Every structure is written in structure tokens, then in C-alpha cells.
Amino acid sequence: MSGPQHISAANLVGWFERTSRDLPWRHPGVSAWQILVSEFMLQQTPVSRVLSIWPDWVRRWPTPSATAAATAADVLRAWGKLGYPRRAKRLHECATVIARDHDDVVPDDVEVLLTLPGVGSYTARAVACFAYQQRVPVVDTNVRRVVARAIHGRSDAGAPSARRDHADVSALLPNDATAPQFSVALMELGATVCTARTPRCGLCPLDACAWRQAGFPASAGLPRPVQRYAGTDRQVRGCLLDVLRANNAPVTKSQLDVAWRTDTQQRDRALDSLLADGLITKTVDGRFALAGEQ
Ligand code: SF4
């Protein structure tokens, strides 16, 4: 490829090697399981918060079988404040399946990875690429934004389409052993330089960018609403889980009630949803505990 439809692998990989963040799950010797754990944690959670949990987590539970041997409550408690705690439950289930059905080894095939609990299209390809050095397209929000700008001349990527997004990134991957480095570098560029609100084009290693060359035209779409957290059911669920995490024994309903006083209907709805998700259980005497803890 040539012209603006091309991203120079040498430029991008060279930039990555000079400037990338020193993230522990990228270090040599980190196992496929530990990389998979980092990918579960990084879904919807900023790197800085994952950094505060991942090292202790993989020391405590370095393998799928070690994780499977823990109780679901232990895993939920260690997940702490990462948010979206269903991920912790799915990670525990994923560990159980790998330990039981795959000899405690994370599969290296994307199609097999996709059969594991909690592993979706992005995570399967991220593990195949980062843990097993395969040439597969790894497409997250950051990658989609860089491709939209550099290749298509648009300020943002619009609605995701797995087939189109994978085809776009596959066409950019170099046909040699640098493909995995290229993938991680593309993600890093979107995360640190070509950011959603304030791209720092002066630091960009790309020699051509269609959006920059077109004079940064504004997006035709409506601006995305900013996600809020305060006052949402998600926040209430977090407050209820905090109470359970802080207690090693089941708690009463009134102990939970003090965690959220502003809207009792919302509190009860959040409690019901935690029960429905299997993150907490109700004891025979009507108290509440983290899943698997009673
Ligand atoms: S030149 Fe600017 S907009 Fe284009 S890819 Fe680089 S950082 Fe993003």
C-alpha cells in the first residue's frame, strides 16, 4: 500500500519501542493466563486502576487452576473497586473451564478462545496476538478511532461493525513477524496520542493521516453523550457490594439499606439485579452474602 491508506509499520513500531508505557502485563515471561486476566480487567476500566490490582492478583492466582480453586467470593472481593463485577464472576468461570477442559493452558486458537466464558471478539484476538504472537486484527475503541482518522479521514469511527473493522485492520497489518507489535502499537497510539478529545498530532509517528490532510473536518454525527456514573444503578450496585466485601459473614438487609438511602426503590432494584446476576446470594435465614460465601 502507499499514500494515505498506508500506515508505516517501521515508523509505528519504532515509535512504540521508544515511547510505550511500561505496563507489567507486557513484560517478558508473563503467561497467557496473566495476559487474559489483564484483558478482562481492562475492559471498561482505565489502566491506572488495573495497575493497582493486577500484580497482586496474578501473584495470588498465577494460573487458571489456582483461580478456579478460589471461591467466587474471594474473586469478587479481590476485584475490589474495578467496577462491572460480572467480569470477575466470568473470569472465575473462565478459569474453571480452562483448568478442567484445556489442561490449565489458555487456548491459542481464536475460535476456541471464543467459547470461553467472558471472552468476546476483542479479548480472544488480544490473547492470540499478545500472548501467542499471532497475526490477527485486534480492534478496540482506540484502534477504530486511529483507523477512522488516519485511513478514512473521519474524526471518529461511528458504530462498530466487526466484519468491516477487522477487514480494515487486517489490511494494515504487516505480513511479517512485526504484526503483533504493530497491533499493540496501534492501540497505544489511540490510547496516548490520538485520543478522542485532544489528539496530539505533533507527537504522532504516522507519516500520513487522511483526517489531518483534510484539515480535521468535524464529525457528521451527533456528539456522544458523556456517560455518567453518579446516581446510576451501577453506582448503587457498587455501594451494596462494598458492604458485602467488607464483611466476612452474611449481612442483614438493614445493613445493606444504609449503603444507599436516597432512593429505596432503586436500592431494591440494584439488590435484585445482583441476585439475578449471581454475584450475591440470599441465605436461608434471609441475610445476604457474596456468591459462594455462605
Ligand atoms: S495525525 Fe493526529 S489525528 Fe491523525 S492519527 Fe496522528 S494523532 Fe491521530
UniProtKB/TrEMBL annotation:
This is Adenine DNA glycosylase. It comes from Mycobacterium basiliense. Belongs to the Nth/MutY family. Residues 41-192 form the HhH-GPD domain. It catalyses: Hydrolyzes free adenine bases from 7,8-dihydro-8-oxoguanine:adenine mismatched double-stranded DNA, leaving an apurinic site. InterPro entries: DNA_glycosylase, Endonuclease3_FeS-loop_motif, HhH-GPD_domain, HhH_base_excis_C, HhH_motif, MIG/MutY. It is an enzyme of class 3 (hydrolase). Its EC number is 3.2.2.31.
